[in-house]
Design goal:
Elements lengths: L1 H14 L6 E4 L6 E4 L4 E6 L3 E5 L5 E7 L7 H14 L3 E5 L3 E6 L2 E13 L2 E13 L4 E9 L3 H13 L11 E7 L11 E4 L4 E4 L3 E3 L10 E7 L6 E7 L6 H15 L4 E9 L5 E13 L2 E13 L4 E9 L3 H14 L2
Parallel strand pairs: 9-17
Antiparallel strand pairs: 1-2, 3-4, 4-5, 5-10, 6-8, 7-8, 7-11, 8-9, 9-10, 12-13, 14-15, 15-16, 16-20, 17-18, 18-19, 19-20
């Protein structure tokens, strides 16, 4: 009986070997990569853009550059970020550290950048970016992940990136990994901190606090104006108290926006993650107002989020014609709140 049981256990073990990654070998001999379980090549575009897909919305783009391009890991990495911005990822900023290393004997770089995209909804995204100098040419690696599933996908995608190697070479793993300083982006120069006992924020270049008049409610802690974009402002309101919930703050935000722009139409909505890790609920209103006998098309963006000391409501107001520039700066203020 004992031998029979042992035989059955061995039969089960060896008839179901552990799942292994599928290895992709480029037919043109450019690179080799180990794919996560269930992943496969979806398409090759323009002869250089490789799209791999897993379950759900998971996707990786690998873009190859021939030796004639003379691109090192830094220029490849920069090209990846530039492509993300051209696709609509707004204000990508580093999340954590960047790393340089060698993977399978080749110079490489890896990092994560967060930003947001607008459309029917507003979505916070993280893009995982890597670059590798191959013996013949080089490539960059990009994958967008939702901030809420980054941890789940991140390790799997970084393992795929770390497997990239030259055809015919044996996997040698990651070596000489070290973090590097990330220089502040030019757009961050000239920012102004706003420090209140309940909330701190960072104002973009050219923005200044305005004096609060006697007509403002006691919950209003700040009113800020852009010095570069005419008429663009952000109002900051802190709600406190045992009975105050985030849902009640969202109701107050909606009522304030509707009172400010009575004929407005709400939408789109979405979530943006602040740099402190809070989820800010976003709503955008479109409408019109009359000033000095002239009708102006207007937009309002509201954000409600929980900070350590209050439920924070931010409301940005701009003329529609300035929306493209104004929305980026207003959302940067929202993301800085903590």
């Amino acid at each position: 009986m004992g031998r029979t049981l042992l035989f059955l256990i061995l039969l089960v073990v060896f008839s179901h070997p552990p799942a292994v990654a599928k290895t992709y070998q480029d037919p043109k001999g450019r690179f080799v990569a180990d794919l996560p379980k269930g992943w496969s090549l979806k398409s090759i575009s323009n002869d250089i853009i490789y799209t791999f897909e897993g379950g759900g919305d998971a996707q990786v783009n690998i873009v190859y550059f021939p030796p004639a391009a003379r691109m090192d890991r830094e220029t490849l990495f920069s090209a990846a970020l530039e492509q993300c911005e051209s696709e609509g990822l707004t204000n990508p900023a580093p999340e954590g550290k960047n790393y340089i290393m060698t993977i399978n004997g080749n110079p490489a770089k890896w990092g994560a950048y967060g930003g947001y995209v607008t459309g029917e909804t507003i979505v916070s995204l993280t893009v995982l970016v890597g670059s590798v100098e191959l013996k013949s040419g080089g490539l960059y690696f990009r994958s967008y992940v939702n901030k809420f599933n980054r941890k789940k996908m991140g390790q799997k995608l970084e393992a795929m990136f770390s497997s990239i190697r030259d055809p015919g070479s044996e996997p040698a793993g990651v070596a000489e990994r070290q973090s590097i300083a990330i220089p502040a982006a030019g757009k961050d120069a000239g920012t102004t901190p706003f420090d209140h006992k309940l909330v701190t924020m960072t104002l973009p270049q050219g923005w200044k606090p305005k004096k609060l008049g006697a007509n403002f409610e006691k919950e209003v802690i700040g009113w800020f104006m852009s010095g570069d974009i005419p008429g663009v402002s952000v109002l900051a309101v802190c709600y406190r108290g045992l009975g105050m919930t985030l849902a009640k703050a969202e109701v107050a935000a909606r009522r304030t926006a509707e009172a400010t722009l009575p004929n407005s139409i709400p939408g789109p909505t979405g979530l943006i993650m602040t740099r402190a890790g809070s989820a800010a609920s976003i709503m955008i209103y479109t409408g019109s107002s009359v000033s000095e006998g002239k009708r102006m098309e207007m937009k309002i963006v509201t954000a409600t989020l929980k900070t350590k000391k209050c439920k924070l409501f931010l409301m940005g107001t701009t003329q529609s014609r300035f929306w493209d520039d104004a929305q980026h700066e207003m959302i940067q203020i929202i993301k800085s709140a903590k």
